[in-house]
Design a protein that fits this description.
The chain is α/β, with parallel strands linked by helices and 227 residues long. It is built from 7 helices and 13 strands. The protein has helices at residues 16-26, 46-57, 76-79, 92-102, 104-113, 123-126, 168-178; strands spanning 3-7, 32-35, 65-67, 84-87, 117-121, 153-156, 158-160, 182-184, 189-194, 197-202, 206-209, 215-218, 223-225. The protein is globular and about 45 Å long.
């Protein structure tokens, strides 16, 4: 049984409850794979990224962590050595470009089909949705990614991260343009996605916008279906 965890971003104090449940499901069996390739290393080095993920997971007893900074040549067999994959934040377009260029999307799909556990934070969460244009107000498309389709692991829903109410007009514009429903997550909110339904996690509500731009507030520990 595969499970996705998505967080709206934020620091480790803000995502503590989401991280705690994720780490509990991972347990102490296979190692955790960390993929920080969305990060601009001109600003934050991969070494610092690794220190960060270790500081996030160590309080929950997760210390066996492998980091991949290049997805080229990685196989499904390589991926199945891990108990979970954590895809970190940064530039969403750059992340999706690397996933597509390396063929890693098919490896992730196989991992999910085999019951794998995946965590996406910020950019890592957005790529799990149906469309990437939810990040256009934050991220530059320097890689000239033309196809804005996401991995669509949540049906037709797209993910909006770092949400604040002042984003509502932008979300309406996105829906008008792409006719995709949106799940908006702030920096203390996440999702657990399992068996065709989602549970809101964290300490703040999520907001779901349907294709008619109707906005629904969904509280932590509430469920809704996407299948």
């Amino acid at each position: 049984m595969s499970t996705l965890y998505l967080s709206g971003g934020g620091d480790k104090e803000q995502t503590y409850e989401i991280d705690r449940v994720f780490a509990g499901e991972l347990g102490s069996g296979k190692p955790l794979l960390y993929v920080p390739i969305a990060m601009n290393t001109a600003h934050i080095s991969y070494e610092d990224c690794y220190k960060w993920i270790y500081s996030v997971m160590d309080p929950f007893g997760i210390t066996d962590i492998t980091m991949w900074t290049d997805l080229r040549g990685k196989t499904s067999k390589d991926l199945m050595k891990f108990g979970a994959v954590y895809i970190g934040g940064g530039n969403t377009f750059s992340l999706m470009h690397d996933i597509l260029q390396s063929g890693f999307s098919s490896q992730l799909t196989t991992f999910i089909d085999e019951g794998g556990l995946i965590y996406g934070g910020s950019a890592g969460a957005i790529v799990m949705g149906s469309h990437l244009a939810t990040c256009e107000h934050m991220d530059n498309n320097d890689v000239q990614l033309r196809d804005r389709s996401g991995l669509s692991y949540l049906g037709d829903y797209s993910i909006w991260c770092h949400y604040d109410t002042y984003n509502d007009d932008l979300i309406h514009r996105f829906i008008d343009t792409y006719s995709k429903p949106v799940i908006a997550l702030n920096e203390e909110t996440g999702l657990q996605v399992k068996n065709g339904r989602m549970e809101i996690m964290g300490t703040e509500p999520a907001y779901v916008f349907d294709v008619d731009k109707m906005k629904k507030r969904v509280e932590p520990k509430e469920f809704f279906s996407f299948s």
